[in-house]
Amino acid sequence: MEVNYENDKVEGYCTGKAKAKKLFGGDEGLAIKLLSRINALREALTLKDIIEQKQFRFHNLRKIGGRDLRGSYAIDVKTRKEPWRIVLVPLDDNENPTGDQEIHNIAMKVRIIKIMEVSNHYE
Prior knowledge:
- The structure is a single chain.
- It contains five helices and seven strands, in the order βααααβββββαβ.
- By secondary structure, the protein is an alpha+beta fold.
- The strands form two sheets. A five-stranded mixed beta sheet has the order 1-7-6-5-2, covered by helices on one side. It has a two-stranded antiparallel ribbon with strand order 3-4.
- It is globular, with a radius of gyration of 14 Å.
């Protein structure tokens, strides 16, 4: 899949071990796992390949802290026990968000995603 980023800061976390490590307060294990997840996203042919892998725990988002996140999804950086998530938005072939559609109906068509943030789910 093609992986786009919300901004340079998010791209830095997702592509550089040093920046990822800094994001995770020096936790090198989490930094390595983040880079591994990004590689898995890139290697997938479609979003369905990610959804089918239970270790990612792909799930939809609605509202967090007053922010409307409908149409956004998350995967775990490491495990469900860790609070860190990769928040992403599926894009169509014109790089527009697919919106709040039933993801399982369009997952085989989604070949582009945008990573919006890497965040601590509970902050």
